[in-house]
Design goal:
The chain is 66% helix and 5% strand. The protein is mainly alpha-helical and 315 residues long. The protein has one domain. The chain has a 4-stranded mixed beta sheet with strand order 1-2-4-3, with helices on both faces. Strand 3 and strand 4 form a beta hairpin. Helix 2 runs parallel beside helix 8 and helix 7 packs across helix 10. The chain is globular, with a radius of gyration of 22 Å. The two termini are 27 Å apart.
């Protein structure tokens, strides 16, 4: 039954095209950034590539450990949390995924996250607050959302996006420093000196390019992040066959977060990019800068999927 659902509803072409277009724009941005920077500075790329590759590799291979440490999550056994493990195992069977490790976060903030570089090295975590507040079918909707992140290899997607951002940032810092103090590095500085005597014009060019690159890349990476959430919401609906369960869960999580003291929210704020629902909802000023879509849009997208499936949707 699950395979039939995935065949009939499993691909949102519009969402896929938007994700590909955004990723393409992000890649094009970094190409333009590199071309402009190298046209005004004689920058040695090799040492920066080594540093950035090392940072990206650390981020990629330790993503699960870093997320668990940041959240305070504890890996739990089947004996400790049999019901939670049973839910995860059942959903993994429906989604044709290997079972990830299961963790519980000791906080009353209702939320959940998934991490890990691939399905074989994944972790799915729920908070104590989520477990207490949600009904079993709602928890399954949340878990299916997180498993969709695992299936979509979203940690890899965001690592690749962050890799180019880190490279651009490092190029900016090094280029700015050597541009200000005269010449490039990694092989002579005549090109920058000949084009811009004294280094001040180089400084201004690098500063302008870096600011524009950072601003645009920040927005594009946030856009990709929002699309990831839409895709995971859709994946949850297709795995469970009941989009209304995730809709109900998202509403309860959102309302539950508003009841949590700010001190408790600050303790888990570092996990906002991973959570199914961000905890800093009061600070969001514009959708353009959000890493999660607005709740209303997520509910509308899920309602549309529910109608496609012939499932009940609350008016």
């Amino acid at each position: 039954m699950g395979d039939v659902k995935r065949k009939n509803y499993g691909r949102d072409r519009g969402l896929t095209l938007r994700m590909l277009a955004t990723g393409g724009l992000l890649g094009l941005l970094y190409v333009v950034f590199a071309v402009v920077l190298f046209s005004v500075l004689n920058v040695g790329l090799a040492p920066m590539l080594v540093i950035v590759v090392a940072l990206a590799a650390i981020q990629y291979y330790t993503s699960d450990k870093l997320a668990l440490a940041a959240s305070g999550a504890k890996i739990v056994s089947e004996q400790e949390e049999p019901e939670l493990h049973a839910m995860v195992e059942r959903l993994c069977a429906m989604a044709s995924l290997p079972k990830p490790r299961v963790a519980v976060v000791p906080t009353d903030v209702p939320n959940a996250f998934a991490t890990g570089r691939n399905p074989k090295h994944a972790v799915v975590a729920v908070t104590q607050g989520l477990w207490r507040r949600l009904e079993p079918q709602e928890i399954e909707g949340v878990l299916a959302h997180e498993l969709s992140h695992v299936a979509n290899r979203d940690v890899l997607v965001m690592t690749v996006a962050s890799f180019f951002a880190m490279l651009a940032g490092l190029l900016t810092r090094w280029g700015l420093f050597f541009g200000m103090w005269g010449g490039g590095f990694g092989g002579g500085g005549n090109r920058s000196n000949n084009n811009n005597q004294g280094g001040v014009p180089v400084f201004l060019i690098v500063l302008a390019v870096s600011v524009v690159t950072y601003a645009i890349s920040f927005i594009l990476i946030r856009t990709i992040s929002r699309y990831r959430e839409y895709a995971a919401d859709r994946g949850s609906a297709l795995i469970t066959g009941a989009p209304e369960h995730l809709m109900s869960a998202l509403q309860k999580i959102s309302s539950g977060i508003t009841m949590i003291p700010q001190r408790d929210l600050r303790e888990v704020q570092a996990m906002n990019a991973f959570f199914i629902m961000p905890t800093n909802w009061r600070q969001q000023m514009s959708e353009l800068f959000m890493d999660h879509p607005p709740l209303e849009k997520r509910l509308a997208a899920l309602a549309e999927i529910a109608r496609e499936m012939g499932r009940p949707v609350a008016a």
